[in-house]
Amino acid sequence: MIPKLNPELALDASIVAFTKALLHAGFTGDIETSYASRLAVATDNSIYQALPQAVLLPRSTDDLVIMTSLAQTSSFSHIKFCPRGGGTGTNGQALTEQVVVDLSRHMRQVLEINVEQRWVRVQAGVIKDQLNAFLKPYGFFFAPDLSTSNRATIGGMINTDASGQGSLVYGKTSDHVLALKTVLIDGNVLKTHKMPLFEAEHRAELPNSIGRIYQQVLRSCREKRSDILATFPRLNRFLTGYDLEHVFNDEMTEFDLSRIITGSEGSLGFVTEAKLNITPIAKYKCLLNIKYDSFESALRNSPFLVEAQATSVETVDSKVLNLARGDIIWHQVKDLITDVPGKDMQGLNIVEYNTEDEAEITEKIAALTSKLDATMAAGEGGIIGYQLTYDASAINAIYTMRKKAVGLLGNTPGSQKPLAFAEDTAVPPENLADFILEFRALLDQHGLHYGMFGHVDAGVLHVRPALDLIDPDQERLLRTISDQVVALTAKYGGLMWGEHGKGYRSEYGPAFFGETLFTELRKIKAAFDPRNRLNPGKICTPYQNGDKLVSVDGQKRAWFDRQIPIEVRQSFDSSLNCNGNGLCFNYDETSPMCPSSKITKDRRHSPKGRAGLMREWLRLNQQQGVDVLADEQRLLTQSQGLTALWQKMKHSWAQRQGEADFSHEVKEAMDGCLACKACASQCPINVDVPTFRSRFLQLYHSRYLRPAKDHIVGNIERMAPILAKAPKFVNFFLKRSLVQKTLAHGIGYVDTPLLSVPTLVERLNNRYGFDLTALQALTIAERQKTVLLVQDPFTSFYEAELVADALALIEKLGYRPVLLPFLPNGKPQHVKGFLREFAKTAKRAADFLNQLHALQLPLIGLDASLVLVYRDEYAKTLGNERGDFNVQLLHEWLAPLALPAASRPAQFSLLAHCTEKTALPATEKTWQQIFDKTGLSLKVVSVGCCGMAGTYGHEQAQLANSKALFDLSWREPVERLGTEQLLVTGFSCRSQVKRLVGDKPRHPLQVLLQHI
């Protein structure tokens, strides 16, 4: 039995008092002080970890004014803050042991757009892709393009002066900032924009902090102008924090204080709003994938591509490409990056052209391809082939693969993982190839593996050496490599931080800036934040302040993970390997990735959040001397007796009385998971929350009683066949409002589905019966025309008409269908953590299905969420005892068949089950191909999660989120297209549509049955 867990880090009393005073002062945002909430923002995409004292999530600029004004009072003047956006920084920029101020949850409004003047005004929490989705109907986009664009906030982009693909043409974020609204630490609101010099000088005379800031920045940037121009490198990137050079224009007649704030990493104030320049979307685009025999060839060829006037040139090495081949993304790009027969592709340059003029792009592409052909014919440059595409969706798929490269490197096998700490070096592009060769030699000298990709046109390459920081020697090696890379970039006239900010690398700032300019930075910091209360230790400390800068030696996640035994780390590798890349924060409403994160905007309710909580839960158990793996094994092999039951009752009573236990916080986060398993394939690290969630629930309920609804769900496969013997009787009571209220309030279960009437047995009337002896006696020819249909509890007992239609379709296609006897699959048990019971269920089902597999007859299932359990959870639970049986989904069986033509042409739209299309990414395309064979048309509609996900949508506690998820991406296409035209593959999805719209859509097989 697991122990009660009490985290050792209690809240400071002044923080508790501050949060209470905030509410009294009218703060309308969220205030989170639970250990779980603080842990959720204790990490980012870096190697570091810092536990904050509290998390504040303001709703408006006014909330930040209230917060900072209150923080000026004597009782709270010692409290320090750190702004946070998407939390995807690779160098710990938004990590702190103070108070995190997260603007990403609520401040997501696009406030104003002016198409004529080409600008948009947004709140700081707006996500980059969200903004571009808003701008697209107007024909514009916000140009800086990041690999994290689907979760990076505009505020975060401003604070790191983010850039990325295409930066040679489109520049950095600072090149597109027209105006900023920033709340200063003293509560003043600073509004900045480009202005005539005389206006800035006038503002410098104001008798407040704003006047002091203008005065200091004017003095530093004017008096040290020659030093600034001599020190700042002539690169597409610049020394983030603070941009002293571009405060003035070249003529020194205009002044823009916003340039100081961009790239300041939250060390000067809280940016709450931004007015941004927007760029017209080019009408014509072309992408070339140029393949090379070595990565060095790809690097050395990049200047030639830049000279060919490409919009952008991105590169990836063979390590990244090979990782991409094993990811879900590869099925979208494999036809665009085909292997060259007889050649080994070791590097790839992704070259984009875009323009408003079709003739111009045609001319440029013709010129480049002609040169490429000539170079290949001469056997020069290491070029072994190229492919090009003008298709917008194909171009987007390639960039999705490239953007995923960061996360994919984290999925490298073994304990040594490519890490971000020196991965955004920038050198003049003409020096890049020589620089990288020396960089590689440096890493080879230490015997390290690494992956490389990046923006070769800008001289920025992301190099991530593979280290295992749990090994103290390798943690020390990280320091050595960092120092060596700093020296190497200086040798080649570049920067260590060309794109991802300083963060914990701030200690290197003085050497790059030099004493004179670094002192000016400190004076500017003192003007904004004299007591070092904003993201202390990052960029610089205030002038004449004795505080120290943060260091690459700061506390790392590995320090905590080191406390977990290696056997436990390996067993729970899915949670321990999470590198914080944050793809699970994907804002896209039509993406299936983590619906709970999407709808709550709560970092705890994301795969990253849950993985972090699980890591800490394992660590705390180890601190108490608990062998988690031994406890698990006992629970799997032994039943708990009356003594354990009595203890559970006592512990559950204590829980109801308010007794704290960190396990309750972990369970709250796990309860919000829909168990859709999108994370297991969509996450580049393949963090599989449902799997470690089930293991956690089993252990949690060894100490605490299970709620009644868990027992109902866990036993649904046993109960459904019994209830189906009297469906009208059962349905009569389920329809009664008193019963519904009792189930909702007493058990927490709502909208209980009605059993099928007529039942499946009544519909089939003794047809398609199962006889094992008869099947064993079939001839080879008879077996080739026999198909076995595997039942599941949901379609067989709650949607019997679908099973009957499936059998009729198989028969119509000239096959003899046989309906197998119903045998529980075990998925409901697994979802609720009844793992001992699940193992028994899985073993019984596997033994039966393996017996049939020996007959070499196809096994087909109808619902993906159940069928996929046979492939994944059975393999993990049973190991070799799982056997070799394979249950196909209907579309997998139909795909290779020759199908008859439809009686008449018709058009339909497909909404696929999220579990199915993430685990089997070819699902939608396969259904389209099946329909094409028959002469029917099927259009795929891009949607996220419908919000039902098995029994999740039937739980009272999750009902609001379930309905909100449906509204997010399903309601609009359902209401626009109507259920007659819509085809839906998932039982849960069809049930959700019926519950919330009133009519039930059909499964694709039912349309095939009707039309062929």
Tell me what the structure shows.
The strands form 6 sheets. Strands 13, 14, 15, 16, 17, 18, 19 and 20 form an 8-stranded antiparallel beta sheet that branches. The chain is an alpha/beta fold and about 1000 residues long. It has 49 helices and 27 strands.
Topology diagram in text:
Blueprint lengths: L12 H13 L4 E3 L2 H6 L13 E4 L3 H10 L10 E4 L14 E4 L7 E5 L4 E5 L4 H8 L4 E2 L12 H7 L6 H4 L6 E7 L5 E8 H7 L5 H15 L1 H7 L22 E3 L1 H4 L8 E8 L1 E2 L3 E9 L2 H13 L4 E6 H8 L4 H4 L13 E9 L2 H20 L5 E7 L2 H12 L1 H5 L7 E2 L6 E2 L5 H14 L4 E6 L4 E8 L4 H20 L17 H20 L28 H5 L4 H6 L1 H4 L18 H6 L6 H17 L4 H10 L4 H15 L5 H10 L6 H5 L6 H12 L7 H7 L1 H8 L3 H8 L2 H11 L12 H5 L7 H5 L3 H4 L2 E4 L3 H6 L1 H13 L3 E4 L7 H5 L3 H19 L5 E3 L2 H8 L1 H6 L8 E3 H5 L12 E5 L2 H6 L3 H12 L2 E4 L18 H11 L1 H7 L4 E3 L2 H11 L6 H8 L1
Parallel strand pairs: 2-4, 3-4, 21-22, 21-23, 23-24, 25-26, 25-27
Antiparallel strand pairs: 1-2, 5-6, 6-11, 7-12, 8-9, 8-11, 9-10, 13-15, 13-16, 14-15, 14-19, 17-20, 18-20, 19-20
Helix pairs in contact: 8-19, 17-18, 24-27, 38-49
